[in-house]
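seq/struct pair 1
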Amino acid sequence: MVSEINAQWGNLQDIGEALSLAFALVFSGDADLLEIVLLSLRVSLTATAVACLIGLPVGALVAISRFRGRSAVLILMNALMGLPPVVVGLLVYLHLSRSGPLGFLGLLYTPTAMIIAQTILIAPIVAALSRQVLEDLHAEYSEQFRSLCLTRMQTVQALLWDARYSLLTVGLAGFGRAVAEVGAVIIVGGNIDHLTRVMTTAIALETSKGDLALALALGIVLLVIALSVNAAVQSVRMTAARQAYV
C-alpha cells in the first residue's frame, strides 16, 4: 500500500515538473515551439481563407437559388460537414502520391498538402453554415431585391456584405476546426520536423515519446488559441446584435 502511494506521488511530481517546464517553454519563447505554432497558424489560416473563397459563394448561390434536386444538394452539403479526417487525408494522399494523378506536382509531405487537406475538410462547413445564414437573410430581403431588379451576382454581393459579421463567425468556426485537425494532416504532411510538424501532430508525437513538457506546452498554446477563437466569435456576435439593434 505504501509503495503504491509513493508511486502515485512520484507520478504527480513528474506531471507537475512537466507542467512547470511547459509553462517555461511557452513564456521563454522556445524556438522549436514557436516554429511549430507559426507553421500551424500559417497552414490553418491559409486553408480557412481558401475555404471561405470557395464556401461562401457556394453557400450564397444555393441560398438564393431554387432548382430541381436542391434538397439533395442540401443533404450532401450537410453530410460533407462530417467528413472523416483520415479518409480525407487518405484521398489527398492517393492523389498527391507519385502514382497518383497529381504526383508530378511533388506536393506530398509539404505544407501545401496539409493546406489542401484542411481546405477540403472545412470548405463544406463554411458552405453549409453560410447557406443557412444567407438563406434566412434572403427571405427577409427578397421583396426589396425584386423591387430593385438586382441580378443574381448583385444579390449575392448584397447578402455577403449585410451578413459579414455572421459570416465572420462562420470563418472563425472553420479556423477552429482546421487548427485542431490531426488525422488528415499527419497523413499528407508526414509530421516532418522543421517542415510539416504542426501543433496537433507534434503533441501526438511528443506524448508517445514521453516528452510531456513540449506536448503540454503545445497543448497550452492550442487551448489558448481555441479560447481566443471562441471569444472572438462571441465578440463578433455581440457586435452584429448591436448593429442589428441600431
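seq/struct pair 2
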Amino acid sequence: MNTTIRIAALAAGMMAAGVCAAQDKVMISISTGPTGGVYYPLGGGIANILSKYVPGYSANAESTAGSVANLQLMSQKKSDIALTMADAAWDGYKAQGKFSGAEVPVRALMVAYPNRMHAVTVEGRGINSFTDLKGKRVSTGAPNSATELMTQRLFEAYGMDWSKDVRRERLTPEKSADAIKDGKLDAFFFVAGIPTSSVTDLAATPGTRIKLIDHADGVEKMTAKHGPLYVRDVIPAKSYPGQEQVNHVATVWNLLVAHRDMPDQLAYNILKTIFDRKDDLVLVHKEAANFDIKTQSKAAATIPYHPGAIKYFAEKGVKLN
C-alpha cells in the first residue's frame, strides 16, 4: 500500500471511529420551556456543560410549553431531566390536579432558583390593581404550563373566576408580548426568573411603558388551600426598562428534576457537573447564580430527592432524607 493510500485509509478509520464514538454516547433529553422565558436558555446551558463534561453522554434541550408539559413528557419517558415549578411537580408526584390519577415518576435533583409571577400590562389600559383585570383581555399562560396552574390559583385567591371575569387567552409569553404591542391584549401572566426576555422585549418597545401588577396579597389564601408552596416576594425596581417601582409578587421555587429510574451515578454526575461549572451557567443566565447547596431542603423541593442527589448533597454536608 503506497503512502497516499495508507494515509487515506488511516483518515477513514479515524473518521469511522469518531462516528462510532458519537453514536455510542447516550442522549439525555432536557425539557425546558418557551423560548421567551428563562428555562429555555438555562436548559440549553445545562445541556452544553453535560455534553462537554459528563463522559459517555450527550444532552439536548427541548423547548416546551413549560412545567406541566415537561412532567407529562417525563411520564411518557420522553424526558430525562426537566425544569419545573415546585407546585406542578408536587401535583405530578401526588397524581392530582392536571395529573389526576396518573402519578409522574419524578424525583428532585436540586432546588434551582425562585420563580416570580409576572403580571404584566402597559400604561393606558386602565389596570392599576389585580381586580382591575375584570373585563380585560388577559393571557393566563400557555396550555400545560405552570404559569396557567399558578395563575388560576391566584385568580381564585382574589375571588375571581377567569372563565367569567376576563376575556381569556392562552398564549406563550412571547406571543403575549406581541399581542399587547398590537393592541390585541391588555395583560398577561408569566412565572419566571428575572429578567425574562419577553417582558424585557415589551418594556424596551419604543412608546411603551410597562406596569407590573402587585398581587402578593393573594399568597396567604393560595398557601392555605394548596400548602406552603408560595411566598411573598418582590421583583426589584429597574429589573426591566422603565420599571421604576418595586413589584410585590407571589414566588415559587423552580426545581431541576429527573425520572426516578435515572441511574444514581448519572444523577450524581449531573449535579457535580452543574455545581462545578456553575460559572459557565451564570454567563448563560444570571438566575444560575441562585443555584446554591444551602437552599436544598425537602420543604423547598416538596417531592423526594433522587438517591443520586441525596448522595451528592450528603458529601457537601446537606442531609435530605
